[in-house]
């Protein structure tokens, strides 16, 4: 019998395998179900902007853009928050000047809005049920997720089991108490996040409980950044971080590339 040639044609969920014998021209095909990628997206439940009396929460672009990157790729998504249910939206993220195509798409998508209104409780999320976790930003996470034993344990569980973790904008600050092998997880790693300059422009330097850039550097991270508000994300091993709202799409795509084996450590 001559050499056997195998060609793999992949769809989002199915591998179609053709085995061809060049001598006898016999063809057989086998449908092999591919395991669907599963990602949990974590949002804040905190809605108070320090002592200002103003509202905060999650930043809409940082949810909408990754949500559609993942969903369009056929990912099975679960949304979670500390309290479950509808997470609070930072009203500043939805002003006219901040509108993006992903945000506009979200507002027209009833399935997406329904999913967001029914987040599961973070305490019920187990790392073994997912391929990775993606933390949505906004100022809210700096108060609840950064100090949550449940969130800290979940991130450590993902990382300790060899799975990647991803955080964008303010959410890299959620790593402030997360450790790996007895050291801060970010120590010696290339990371990014909301910069001191961006926080100053928001006029919230003295309102937030800590500055993301300063905190990550204090922990021994190698903090990298681009000009304020420019898209920038970094992959260092199994850690993916994005600088600001504009970095949400590239950070989400980096997660997919990492899970598919295409991504190596780099900045984008």
Helix-strand blueprint:
Blueprint: E1 5-10, E2 14-20, E3 27-33, E4 38-42, H1 60-72, E5 76-81, H2 101-108, H3 110-117, E6 120-121, E7 132-135, H4 149-160, E8 165-168, E9 179-180, E10 183-184, E11 190-191, H5 196-201, H6 212-218, E12 222-223, E13 233-236, E14 239-242, H7 248-260, E15 266-267
Parallel strand pairs: 4-5, 4-7, 5-6, 7-8, 8-14, 11-12
Antiparallel strand pairs: 1-2, 2-3, 9-10, 13-14, 13-15
Describe the overall structure.
This protein has 268 residues and is of the alpha/beta class. It folds into two domains: 34 residues; 230 residues, Rossmann fold (3-Layer(aba) Sandwich), CATH 3.40.50. Helices cover 25% and strands 22% of the residues. The protein has seven helices and 15 strands. The chain has an eight-stranded mixed beta sheet with strand order 6-5-4-7-8-14-13-15. A three-stranded antiparallel beta sheet has the order 1-2-3, with no helix packed on it. A two-stranded antiparallel ribbon has the order 9-10. β13 and β14 form a beta hairpin. α1 packs across α2 and α1 runs parallel beside α7. The longest helix is centred in the first third of the chain and has 13 residues. The radius of gyration is 20 Å and the shape is globular. The N terminus is likely disordered.
């Amino acid at each position: 019998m001559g050499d056997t040639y195998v060609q793999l044609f992949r769809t989002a969920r199915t591998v179609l395998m053709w085995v061809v014998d060049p001598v006898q021209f016999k063809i057989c095909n086998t449908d092999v179900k591919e395991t669907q990628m599963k990602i949990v997206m974590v949002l804040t439940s905190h809605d108070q902007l320090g002592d200002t009396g103003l509202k905060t929460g999650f930043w809409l672009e940082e949810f909408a853009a990754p949500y559609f990157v993942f969903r369009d790729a056929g990912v099975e998504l679960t949304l979670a928050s500390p309290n479950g249910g509808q997470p609070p939206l930072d009203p500043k993220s939805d002003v006219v000047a901040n509108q993006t195509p992903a945000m506009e798409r979200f507002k027209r998508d009833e399935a997406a809005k329904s999913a967001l209104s029914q987040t599961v409780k973070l305490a019920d999320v187990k790392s073994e049920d997912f391929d990775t976790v993606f933390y949505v930003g906004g100022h809210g996470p700096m108060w609840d997720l950064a100090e949550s034993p449940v969130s800290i344990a979940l991130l450590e569980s993902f990382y300790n089991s060899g799975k990647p973790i991803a955080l964008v904008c303010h959410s890299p600050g959620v790593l402030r108490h997360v450790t790996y092998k007895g050291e801060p997880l970010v120590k010696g790693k290339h990371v990014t996040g909301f910069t001191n300059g961006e926080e100053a422009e928001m006029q919230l330097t003295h309102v937030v409980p800590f500055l993301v850039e300063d905190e990550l550097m204090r922990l021994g991270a190698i903090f990298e950044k681009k000009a304020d508000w420019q898209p920038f994300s970094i992959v260092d091993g199994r850690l993916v971080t994005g600088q600001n709202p504009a970095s949400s799409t590239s950070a989400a795509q980096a997660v997919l590339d990492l899970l598919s084996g295409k991504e190596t450590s780099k900045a984008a």
